[in-house]
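Trying the structure run again after the queue cleared.
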Amino acid sequence: MIRFLLSRLLQGVIVIFMVITITFFLSKMIPGGLIQNEKNVSPVTLKAQAEYYGWDKPLIVQWWKQIVHYATFDMPESTHFRGRYIDEIIASGFPVSASVAVLALSIALSIGIPVGAISALKPHTLEDRVSMLATTTGICTPTMVSGPIIALVLGLHLRWFNASGWQESGDVVLPAVTLGIIYSAYIARLMRGSLRETLALEFIRTARAKGAGEIAVVFRHAMKLACLPVLNFLGPAAAGLLTGSFVVETTFQLPGLGQFFIAAVKNNDHQLTMGLSVLFAALIVFFNLLVDLLQAWLNPRIRLQA
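Done. C-alpha cells:
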C-alpha cells in the first residue's frame, strides 16, 4: 500500500510538472498581450510592463520561475485581476463551483444508478427502452441548450428558483440539475452495461444455484463489481465538476471558477490560465487515486501495486 501511494504521488508530481511546462510554452505561443492590442501604447510602457512581470527575462528563466512558484505554493499575481494572487482567485470561486459539483454529482448518482440497474434487470422491455431513450437524449443535449430551457421553465415561468445569479442558497439548484441530468445519463448507460455483464458471470450463476434470492444476488454480489466502471468515470467527472462548467456557470451567471477561466483566456491572463490548469490536473490525480483505493475495497481481487 505504501509503495503504491508513493508511486502514485510521484506520478502525480510528474503530471503536474508536465502540465505547467506545456501550458507555459503554449501560452507563450499565443500572440498579443495585456496592452499590446491597445492603441497608442508607447514602447516605454511595453518595456515597463515586461520588466514588472519578468517577461524580459530569457524563456527558460521564466519557465523555471513558474516551477518554483508552484513547488513552493507561492502563487504569482494575476495579470488581469491586478493586486489579486492566483490562490486568492481560486479560493473565491472554488466554493461556488464545489457547491454546484456536489449537488450535481448527488443528482447524477441518485438518478443514474437506479435507472441503469432497472434497465439491466429488465432488458428489452418498455422500461429499458424508455430509460435508454431518455439517457441518449440527455447525452446528446448540450448544456448550452438544456441550461436555458431549465432556467426558462423552473426559473421564469414557474418561479421556483432564481433564473440566474448567486444571492440565495437555492441558486445552486438549477445549475446542479443541468449538470446532474447529463452526468446521470452517462452513469445510467455505464451501469446498465456493467450490471448486465456482471449478471452473466459464473459466480452469479453459482450464487443462484446455491439458493440465493434475486435481491441478494443483485445487491450483495453483482452491484459491487458492476459499480467499478462507474467509479472510473467519476474520477475525471468529479474533477471537471469541481473546476466549474464554463457553459453552465456562464448561463446562470455564477461567480465560480468557470468565469475566471473564460476571463483569463479572453484577457491573455497566462498566470491565471496556468493556475486553473494546474488545479484541474491536481484534482484529476487526486480523484484517480481515490478511485483506485475504492476499487480495491469493492473488489478484493484488485491488488494495489506500484
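The two ends are 9 Å apart (CA to CA). Worth checking whether this holds up in the mutant runs.
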